[in-house]
Amino acid sequence: MLHADLPVVSAALRLSHRPAALALALLALVIGLACMTRPAQAATLTVINNNDGGPGSLRQVIVDASAGDTITFDNALSGQTITLLAPYRPSRKASPSTAT
């Protein structure tokens, strides 16, 4: 009769280890995925027209830029003025930046 109880105890022990094993496997997966991701590379975005908005405009390039990106101006804009028809209001997620 004692032997008949052993498989029940053994099964109960196996079940009690499953959550820990699952948590460990999940942790290993998360760490593995974190190691596989690469940081985003800084980009150079170019303003190609003097429009107030739309593709290639200063306003659109600012919206598209991320931290670490560089904004340049196309040589064709040399001597031209970019006039904003409305004030530029940075989003809340914007952080202080450096303009050179």
Q: Count the helices. How many?
A: 2
Structural class call reads: mainly alpha
| Strand percentage | 5-15%
Number of domains: 2
Structural description of this entry:
This protein is mainly α and 100 residues long. It folds into 2 domains: 1-37; 39-90, no CATH class. 42% of the residues lie in helices and 8% in strands. The protein is built from 2 helices and 2 strands, in the order H-E-H-E. It has helices spanning 2-36, 58-64; strands at 44-47, 70-73. It is elongated, with a radius of gyration of 29 Å.
Task: List the SSEs and their pairings.
Blueprint: H1 2-36, E1 44-47, H2 58-64, E2 70-73
Parallel strand pairs: 1-2
Give a short overview.
With 100 residues, this protein is mainly α.
Key terms:
mainly alpha; single chain; 2 domains; 100 residues; two-stranded parallel ribbon; 2 strands; 42% helix
